[in-house]
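[step 3/7] fold_predict: job queued, chain A
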Amino acid sequence: MKILQNLNAANIIETKEGKQGGIRLMKQPSEITVLEILEAMEKGKPL
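[step 4/7] structure written:
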């Protein structure tokens, strides 16, 4: 869950709880860089 929390905090994904809930990308996949994902995953740690 920490991974999803980090991606959510970085506005890469949006999460919604409940029966109609789920996870969705906040931008088109082609607009998300690997660097953005790595920075979100390694928050607080130098790359």
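[step 5/7] annotate
The chain has a mean pLDDT of 91.
The helical segments are 2-9, 34-41.
exit 0
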